[in-house]
C-alpha cells in the first residue's frame, strides 16, 4: 500500500454546513450576589489581621529586617537546601529500586522490600534520625572487606563516620525512600498492563521495558506526589536541629538563644521556608506539565 | 508443503486448576495465513500468547521455525531458558493486540523505532528510515509525529502493525486486530493485513471477521473449549463443516 491509496477515512474532506445567521439577542451574564458578600467578609478579616501584624510591636519587624539576610541565616538556608536535595535524591533512587523489588516475581526480593517499608514507615523519622546519630553506641567500629580473606580492608571508628551530616542524610533519605517506594509502585500499577505486554512481545527484557516504557509513563502519576514530598522534606529537615546540624531553623535558634528575640527570628525562618516552598510549587507545576506528554494533547 | 513454521502438538495450558488449552494441535506452513476462529473463552488468545511465550505451556510441544520457544534442546532434554533468553526469541515474532497497546508517551515514529534501537541495537538513522517506509506502507506518512491519543483506532492499529514489522519478524500474530474498532475503520486495517499476506508473511490471525478469514486465510482452524475441533481450507470449512460444534458456531456467526 502506498500513500496515495490511503484509506478514505482520512482523505475525505468533511462537508461544512453553512453557519446559520445569529439572531439579534443580547446575552445577559448571570449575577452572583452571594459572591460579593463572601468577598466583603474575607476583605474585612484580611484587613484586621494585616493591621495587627503591622501595628503589634511584638513582631519586631525591624529585627526581622536585620537578620533576614544575615550570613548565618543564609548559611543555614543553604544547608537546608542541599540537605533537602540529597535526602530527596537518595529517597527517589532508593525508592525506585525498592518499588521494583517489591513487584518482583521472586518472593525473597519482594519480602526484603516489604521489610524495608515496614521498618522505615513504622517508626518516627525523628527517632530514626537520633538512632543513626548514635549508631556508634551500637557498633563502635566498622570494617569493610572480603569475608574470611581480608576482612579489614577498610576500617575505623563509626563515630568518625557518623557526623551530623551523614546521620541526617541517612535518617531523612532512608525514611523518604520508604514513602517514595509506595508512590513509585502506585505509579507503575497505574500504567496499563498492555504496555508491558507489548514491550515484552517486541523482545524487550523486563528491566528495559521498565526503564523505557513503564517508568516514563508512570512519571505522570509519580511527579505530583514527589513534588509534595520535596516540599514536605524541606520542612522536615528542620528536625535535624536536634542533632545540632546548623540548618535554617538551628541557625535562627542559635541567634535567639543569645538575643532572646525568638518571635522575629522564627519569622525570618518562616519567610525563607515560605519563599522556597512557593518556588518549588512553581517548578512542580512546570514539570507536571512536561510529563503529561501524549496525554493532555487530545483535550487541547 | 512440508515446511511448518509453527508446529503445536498437544499443547496444554492451565491457570490454576482450570485447563484452558486441552491438547491443541496446530500447524502453519511458511508463508501461509492461518485464521483461528471460535467462541469467546475457547482459548484463542491464550494459544496465541503461548506461541511467543507470553504464557508458559504446561504440556505438549510448541516449535517456531524448529526452535522450542522457551527451551533449549540438548539431546532428549529441554532446558528452560531464562527470561532474557526468551525475550531474544520473541524478536522474530510480531504481535498485534486487540487494544493496540501503542506506547502512549511516544509518537507513531518513536513507537516504531523503539524496539529496533533498544532491542536490536540498530542505528537511530537506519531505524528512522525503515520506520518511515513502514509507516508509509500502512498509509500513515502524514501522521508520523502524532501521539497515539491523537490517532483514530484504525490509525493506531496500523501503527501497531508497523511497529511489529520493524523487527523484521518471520511470523506475525494478530489477536482480534479489528474487534476494538468502529465498523467504518475495520476495512483500513484489513487492507494492510491483506497486503502483508500478499507479500508472503506467515500470519496467525484470531478473528471474528469471517469475510476476511474466508478471503485471505489459507487454512481455518475452529477452536472450542481449549482444543482445535476442526481445521481445513476456508471453502471446505465454511461450506461443509464436519463437526456439529463447528456447524453450530458458523450458523450463529454467519447469520449475524
Ligand atoms: N490470566 C488468566 N488467568 C486465569 N484464567 C484466564 C487467564 N487468561 C484467560 N483465562 C481463561 O482462559 C479461558 C480462555 O481465554 P482466552 O482469552 O484465551 O479466550 P478467547 O478464545 O481468546 O476468547 P475471546 O474471544 O473472548 O477473546 C477463559 O475461560 C478465560 O477466562
Ligand atoms: Mg481473546
From TrEMBL, chain B:
Superkingdom to which the source organism belongs: Bacteria
Transmembrane intervals: none
Gene Ontology molecular function terms on file: ABC-type amino acid transporter activity; ATP binding; ATP hydrolysis activity
Xref: SUPFAM superfamilies: P-loop containing nucleoside triphosphate hydrolases
InterPro entries in the cross-refs: AAA+_ATPase, ABC_ATPase_HisP-typ, ABC_transporter-like_ATP-bd, ABC_transporter-like_CS, MetN_ABC_transporter-like, P-loop_NTPase
One family name in Pfam for this protein: ABC_tran
Residues of the ABC transporter domain: 6-250
Keywords recorded for this protein, A-Z: ATP-binding, Nucleotide-binding, Transport
Homology family: Belongs to the ABC transporter superfamily.
Protein name as it appears in the record: Amino acid ABC transporter ATP-binding protein
Species annotation: Acidisoma silvae
Amino acid at each position: 500500500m502506498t500513500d496515495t491509496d490511503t484509506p478514505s477515512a482520512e482523505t475525505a474532506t468533511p462537508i461544512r454546513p453553512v453557519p446559520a445567521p445569529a439572531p439579534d439577542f443580547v446575552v445577559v451574564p448571570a449575577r452572583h450576589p452571594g459572591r460579593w458578600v463572601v468577598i466583603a467578609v474575607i476583605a474585612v478579616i484580611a484587613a484586621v489581621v494585616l493591621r495587627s501584624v503591622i501595628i503589634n510591636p511584638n513582631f519586631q519587624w525591624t529585627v526581622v529586617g536585620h537578620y533576614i539576610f544575615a550570613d548565618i541565616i543564609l548559611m543555614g538556608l543553604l544547608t537546608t537546601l542541599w540537605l533537602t536535595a540529597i535526602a530527596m535524591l537518595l529517597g527517589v533512587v532508593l525508592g525506585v529500586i525498592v518499588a521494583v523489588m517489591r513487584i518482583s516475581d521472586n518472593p525473597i526480593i519482594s519480602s526484603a522490600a516489604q521489610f524495608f517499608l515496614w521498618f522505615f514507615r513504622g517508626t518516627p523519622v525523628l527517632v530514626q534520625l537520633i538512632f543513626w546519630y548514635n549508631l556508634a553506641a551500637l557498633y563502635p567500629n566498622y570494617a569493610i572487606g572480603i569475608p574470611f580473606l581480608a576482612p579489614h580492608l577498610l576500617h575505623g571508628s563509626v563515630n568518625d563516620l557518623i557526623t551530623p551530616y551523614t546521620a541526617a542524610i541517612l535518617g531523612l533519605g532512608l525514611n523518604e525512600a520508604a514513602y517514595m517506594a509506595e508512590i513509585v509502585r502506585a505509579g507503575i500499577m497505574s500504567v496499563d498492563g498492555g504496555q508491558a505486554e507489548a514491550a515484552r512481545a517486541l523482545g524487550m527484557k523486563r528491566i528495559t521495558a521498565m526503564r523505557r516504557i513503564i517508568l516514563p509513563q508512570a512519571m505522570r502519576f509519580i511527579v505530583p506526589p514527589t513534588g509534595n514530598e520535596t516540599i514536605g522534606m524541606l520542612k522536615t529537615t528542620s528536625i535535624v536541629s536536634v542533632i545540632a546540624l546548623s540548618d535554617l531553623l538551628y541557625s535562627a535558634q542559635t541567634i535567639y538563644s543569645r538575643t532572646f528575640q525568638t518571635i522575629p527570628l522564627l519569622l525570618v525562618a518562616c519567610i525563607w521556608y515560605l519563599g522556597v516552598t512557593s518556588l518549588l510549587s512553581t517548578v512542580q507545576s512546570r514539570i507536571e506539565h512536561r510529563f503529561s506528554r501524549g496525554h493532555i494533547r487530545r483535550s487541547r | 508443503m512440508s515446511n511448518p513454521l509453527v508446529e503445536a502438538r498437544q499443547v496444554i495450558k492451565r491457570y490454576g486448576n482450570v485447563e484452558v488449552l486441552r491438547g491443541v494441535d496446530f500447524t502453519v506452513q511458511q508463508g501461509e495465513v492461518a485464521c483461528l476462529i471460535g467462541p469467546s473463552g475457547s482459548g484463542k488468545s491464550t494459544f496465541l500468547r503461548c506461541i511467543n511465550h507470553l504464557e508458559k505451556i504446561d504440556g505438549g510441544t510448541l516449535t517456531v521455525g524448529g526452535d522450542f520457544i522457551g527451551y533449549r534442546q540438548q539431546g532428549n532434554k529441554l532446558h528452560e531458558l531464562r527470561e532474557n533468553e526468551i525475550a531474544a526469541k520473541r524478536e522474530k515474532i510480531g504481535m498485534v493486540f486487540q487494544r493496540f497497546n501503542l506506547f502512549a508517551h511516544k509518537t507513531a515514529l518513536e513507537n516504531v523505532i523503539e524496539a529496533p534501537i533498544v532491542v536490536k541495537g540498530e542505528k537511530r538513522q537506519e531505524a528512522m528510515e525503515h520506520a518511515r517506509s513502514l509507516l508509509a506502507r500502512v498509509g500513515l506518512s502524514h501522521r508520523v509525529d502524532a501521539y497515539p491519543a491523537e490517532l483514530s483506532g484504525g490509525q493506531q492499529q496500523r501503527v501497531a502493525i508497523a511497529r511489529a514489522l520493524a523487527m523484521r519478524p518471520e511470523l506475525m500474530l494478530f489477536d482480534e486486530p479489528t474487534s476494538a474498532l468502529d465498523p467504518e475503520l475495520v476495512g483500513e486495517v484489513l487492507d494492510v493485513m491483506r497486503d502483508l499476506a500478499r507479500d508472503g508473511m506467515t500470519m496467525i490471525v484470531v478473528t471474528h471477521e469471517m469475510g476476511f478469514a474466508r478471503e485471505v486465510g489459507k487454512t481455518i482452524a475452529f477452536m472450542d473449549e481449549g482444543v482445535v475441533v476442526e481445521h481445513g481450507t476456508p471453502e471446505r470449512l465454511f461450506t461443509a463443516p464436519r463437526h456439529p460444534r463447528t456447524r453450530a458456531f458458523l450458523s450463529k456467526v454467519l447469520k449475524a
